[in-house]
Specification:
Layout: E1 8-10, H1 12-22, E2 35-38, E3 40-44, E4 49-60, E5 63-73, E6 78-88, E7 92-102, E8 107-117, E9 122-133, E10 136-145, E11 154-164, E12 167-178, E13 181-193, E14 200-201, E15 205-209, E16 213-225, E17 228-237, E18 241-252, E19 256-267, E20 274-284, E21 289-298, H2 302-307, H3 311-314, E22 318-329, E23 332-343, E24 353-366, E25 372-384, E26 391-407, E27 410-425, E28 432-445, E29 448-453, E30 461-475, E31 495-512, E32 515-532, E33 550-556, E34 562-571, E35 576-587, E36 594-602, E37 606-618, E38 621-630, E39 635-646, E40 650-659, E41 663-671
């Protein structure tokens, strides 16, 4: 049979009829349809094969085989295509000079083949490429990469590459190439070819620091189970010593989740050994109770100065560990807490520890049909320390409140409470002391609002509201000197104070197609002024001034990309600023660009500028910059510049940091499918990369 001049298609059903006449016995026939299309197709009786020529396409069970020429033996299921051989299954694609395949067990063999695997977007080349089955390949003189290019940015080359889809590519006598240049050799490399998490080495990073010296960090990522994994760190720090650590993450039934971290330094020379650990956990205890643990411990404060990534971390001088529970039943709330503070500078002999603290509350409840409400709050605390007064304190606080509208536009809220404190001390004072005193608050407020049509590109309506209020706070001037002084609740300051407040809000309504409209609070301006009716010194008014500082807060959001925040406190005594905080921030819609600039001032304490910027304007180069500048000492506190080049299948970054007492740089590489390290010292130092 021979057809010329037209496209020919034949199926196995038709072939069966032909083969009944041509061959009565089949050794291992293919039992599902095989479709063949070609410019020419004929049956060769002596060999029992079908021969096809010109634009050949064979399809079978989701497999497609294309090429210039094809022979196929229906009795054995063997087929071979030569000339521009192309084999696909939907998740893999192979090209070569020729390709032989057994349609029964789907094994095959290609010469000078290129293989693409959808899993991890893997590209593989080799002089000899053997398909051992679905998702199983062996390649001789092979190349492996996840970069789609004739000359990839990186690749592994090896004598033999065994690939298991959903598993690994295992490369013997592997050389690592960057842009065709060999940079690293290993007798064996294992690279994941799967979307799921997989154990293995993370990409290393190295750097140089004036305080830590030359640095090299390696890590191993271990999958323990679907709900558990761990990371093990191994660091070399030429000036400090050898570092090692581990991170363990878990999620158990009922949403018990947490993370534990351990990191230590074996110091060299005059450097002391260091150790640090943290544990964070959250999960339910029964139907109505939740447990939260946040534990932190370090051997000394040098750890934070060595490994802290942000100012709030590398300036830390203490650690705080808390284990707490929270329970709720309708209008009842019960909370417990164990809190331990480790002072790394002065020691813990006189540091108060809360072991434990218990809080019991009855939430505000109405009294029958009357406009009155009652609430109850109680605190029990055991204060413990080695040196100094320690003991127990019980606070009982009942409150009666009322809320009603004497006029349609005016709201009146008031409450009267009682602070009753009991003490049982273990040393230094009488065995038992107690004190009770009242307090009261009255608040008058109203809200005036008006809406306006607005012809904007994204806003169709604006709502402006004005919310004035007057509040009176009162607590009598009662001597409390005979009571212990553990914390702020032991000295309830006398108050006879009027506070005038005014809030201005502007809210924009932004319609959205096929969705409810969005609302954006464009402007919020809060102003408050307090007047002392009794000119007596207090903790927040030590000079006994009649007029306390005038406070104004502004939050301006002209769009979801821009934000301006101001917080100002003005002293009336000499018309000077006591405190000022200001920040302007911008975020692009696609979050690829962002910037912030801020200012902080506190009289006789600090004054500094800070800023940050991240941009992809030079894409694929991404830049990040952070700074802090002391305006009192006129010197830089910190500069950090990070430049990262991101490719389709790899990225490399360089980070430079300049602080008052340390200058450093870090270099790290990340390949697609292989994670990279976060920072030296594991991640206990805080901060990390943004």
């Amino acid at each position: 049979m021979r057809v010329k001049g037209s496209r020919f298609c034949i199926s196995l059903l038709a072939l069966w009829a032909l083969l009944v006449c041509a061959s009565p016995l089949w050794a291992n026939p293919v039992e599902v349809p095989v479709n063949v299309e070609a410019d020419e197709l004929r049956f060769d009786e002596p060999s029992g094969r079908y021969l096809a020529h010109g634009n050949v396409v064979l399809t079978h069970e989701g497999m497609v085989l294309k090429g210039d020429d094809l022979w196929w033996h229906p009795e054995t299921g063997h087929a071979q295509v030569t000339g521009n051989a192309h084999f696909t299954t939907g998740t893999e694609e192979l090209r070569g000079e020729s390709f032989w395949i057994n349609l029964n067990d789907r094994t095959g063999f290609a010469t000078n083949g290129d293989l693409w695997l959808e899993e991890k977007n893997a590209y593989i080349r080799g002089s000899s490429l053997q398909r051992l089955g679905d998702g199983e390949y062996r390649i001789l003189n092979g190349r492996f990469t996840t970069c789609e290019a004739e000359w990839p940015s990186w690749e592994f080359r090896g004598d033999k590459v065994d690939v298991t889809v959903g598993g690994f590519a295992r490369i013997r006598h592997a050389s690592f190439y960057l842009k065709g240049v060999p940079v690293l050799y290993s007798p064996y490399v294992s690279y994941p070819v799967k979307r799921e998490r997989e154990s293995g080495f993370l990409m290393p990073r190295f750097g140089q620091s004036s305080s830590k010296g030359a640095q090299l960090s390696l890590a191993w990522y271990q999958v323990i189970a679907d709900n558990q994994d761990a990371t093990f760190y191994f660091d070399g720090l030429s000036k400090l010593g050898l570092g090692a650590g581990a991170e363990y993450r878990y999620i158990f039934e009922d949403n018990h989740k947490g993370e534990a971290k351990l990191y230590g330094i074996l110091g060299r020379g005059n450097v002391d050994n260091q150790l640090a650990l943290t544990w964070e956990h959250e999960g339910p205890l029964g139907d109505n109770t939740r447990l939260i643990a946040d534990l932190e411990w370090v051997s000394d404060d040098e750890y934070f100065s060595d490994f802290g990534e942000v100012a709030a971390e590398y300036n830390k001088s203490s650690t705080t560990s808390v284990i707490s529970t929270s329970s709720h039943w309708d209008r009842i709330s019960l909370g417990t807490q164990l809190k331990y503070i480790d002072d790394l500078e002065t020691g813990n002999d006189d540091t108060l520890q809360l072991l434990p603290e218990v809080r019991f509350s009855l939430l505000r409840s109405p009294v029958r049909d009357l406009p009155f409400y009652t609430e109850w709050e109680s605190h029990y605390t055991h204060f413990w320390r080695d040196d100094g007064i320690r003991g127990h304190r019980l606070i009982l606080r009942p409150v009666v409140a009322t809320a009603f509208q004497p006029l349609n536009w005016l709201e009146l809220d008031s409450q009267v409470g009682w602070w009753q404190r009991f003490y049982w001390t273990e040393n230094g004072l009488d065995d038992e002391q107690s004190k009770g005193l009242p307090d009261a608050q009255v608040r008058l407020s109203t809200r005036l609002s008006r809406s306006y049509d607005w012809d904007g590109s994204r806003t169709d309506r604006l709502l402006h509201s004005i919310e004035p209020e007057i509040r009176w706070d009162y607590a009598p001037d009662t001597s409390q000197e005979n009571l212990p002084s553990f914390d702020f609740r032991d000295r309830i300051e006398a108050r006879n104070r009027l506070t005038f407040g005014l809030i201005n809000r502007v809210v924009a309504r932004q319609p959205r197609e096929d969705n409810p409209p969005a609302y954006l609070e464009v402007v919020t301006l809060r102003m408050s002024q307090s007047l002392e009716l009794d000119e007596e010194p207090s903790l927040d008014n030590p000079a006994g001034d009649t007029w306390l500082p005038f406070r104004s807060e502004l939050n301006f959001r002209p769009s979801i990309q821009w934000a301006l925040d101001l917080d100002h406190r003005l002293s009336w005594q000499d018309l000077t600023t006591e405190r000022l905080g200001a920040q302007i921030a911008w975020n692009a819609k696609n979050t690829r660009h962002r910037a912030a600039l801020g200012y902080r001032y506190r009289e006789a304490d600090y004054e500094y500028l800070y800023g940050s910027m991240a941009t992809a304007v030079l894409d694929p180069v991404f830049l990040t910059y952070k700074m802090r500048y002391d305006l009192q000492q006129m010197n830089s506190l910190e500069h950090m510049v990070k430049m990262e080049y991101q490719h389709q299948c790899w990225s490399v970054f360089v980070q430079l940091t300049d602080r008052e007492d340390e200058q450093s740089y870090l270099i790290g590489l990340s390949l697609s499918g292989v994670g990279s390290l976060g920072q030296f010292g594991g991640s206990l130092g805080g901060g990390g990369d943004d």
